Amino acid sequence: MITEKELAASRERCRRQRIRILEISQKLSALHVAPAFSCLELVDACYFQLMRRQGAAPDTFILSKGHGAMAQYVALESLGILSSGDVDTICQKNGRLGGHPDYGLPGIEMSSGSLGHGLPIALGKARADLERKEDRVIFLVMSDGEFMEGSVWEALLVAPSLRILNLVVLVDHNRSISRGEIEVNHPNFMPLAPKIRSFGWEVEEANGHDVGEIVRKVSARSRKKPFALVGHTVKGKGVSYMENKPIWAYRSPNPQEYQQALRELGEGGGP
Amino acid sequence: MRDAFARALHKASQQDDRIFFIVADISPAASLDGFRRDFPTRVVDVGVSEQAMIGMAAGLAMRGYRPFTYTIANFTIYRPFEQVRVDLCYQNLPVVLVGVGGGMSYSALGGTHHTVEDLAVMSALPNMNVLVPCDPQEVEEAVLACGRLSGPVYLRLGKAGEPVLASPSAEPFRLGKLRLLQKGTRRAILGVGPILELGMEAARRHEAAGGEPVAVYSAHTFKPFDLEGLCEVLRNFQQVITLEEHGPFGGLAERVLAEAGRTQTRCRVEPFYLQDQFIHAYGTQGDLRESHGITVEALTRRLQERPS
To answer: Were both Cys, which of A114, B91, B190, B248 would link to B217 (CB 3.0–4.6 Å)?
Structure first.
């Protein structure tokens, strides 16, 4: 179980990572900032608490919502798997990291960016691990918008039949897609958790920005069914003017907005 | 071809424990029993879920397996096209997409079950290899060859009951090379897939009517295409008839005509392909080919016309 000290470290890490992402955003006219902020704690909980990263069969992390790439990049940077030079040159001519994770780069286990591809691929990896009797868990972070893709429901349907128990799905349920709030345009989408549960999955819900709650609920899973945690999150979490504003799905703050964001994240300094 | 595939997969799996078989509610029927008996845990049926099938295959391949996915050709490549493009080709994973009933094998089932743009669509994808065996023997060779490829493969099969086409003088199967099925002198038929049966019969009739022997080639490796071998054919023959159960765009004819143009060959290239039209007619596969002008008689007539 997670300790108070670990929780405090996680909070500080996520604060610093938000600042790092904002810093990168100043080098680019457009960056998926808000979608990274909404899943930052879910990603942090995986890498720094839930995953076994050493040993013969280390756990696997996949970011299916590729537009949250910054959240994964800064976590990999914190772990020393990606260099600061790599992260500094994101989306630039001679950089090797792009706007979405690309398979084969350090720490990147799948090319994402097109929605709804992660869950079927995770099933394939999970099935391979079962076949080889490798004791390994696959952690997959998805966006709620991905649940509008048919491929996700195909995979949700088949996973319990294949007895895939070595998979943990974490849903970044920020209730927002490109054109705005999901419940406004697609009211039937809600509620999400019971729909997943009805497909034979064990589902828990949590505050997706509370690492303690995320870790507690994922750790308490029964391991008798495939498991999904629906994390209730805020798009743009941590910066007041970004929170739940669709425009920030794909935009970099201007210099004034950048300074305000830094202040809100406790990084003083004025323009 | 279906049975030849199942036999070959079973054989290959005895030597290679990385082979995994994923089907989407369609399987080579009873002929799969041997595989199921010997490798029960290496078969998965995902149900009618082609996107899940391709994605899972990608995940298995990332873990070192060599998955073969299997369903009717149109469902294999068209329904989950983006999974094929991104999961398999973009990530360059060794997954074999087996499309059974390619072309118009399911002639009575209507256009939803035809796959006559597949060579164009699959060839357009970087990293993708495209194999189109013409008979059960080539199916067996192609399945074994898939194990030597490091990227994705689209393997277009016919259905069942296709005859063996190679003559005693046929060359052995070599991945990536045109294969001579029977020798000839001034005229050649170059085709892909089981429709070469018509080419072999037209060549036989031509010779029976007093003509010189006609060479017949199988372009079983459609991508990467054997351009060197093609140039040799264009140099060595006065007339080359291309033959395919595929539409006019991005198929064999375009490939051969482009190369003929590039090399300014004097060889006369005469394509036989399907028209750019969906088929709403029914009957046998031969009936449907005939409705688009592809018959043994038409091929034989073309062979009899004197090269200008």
So the answer is: B190
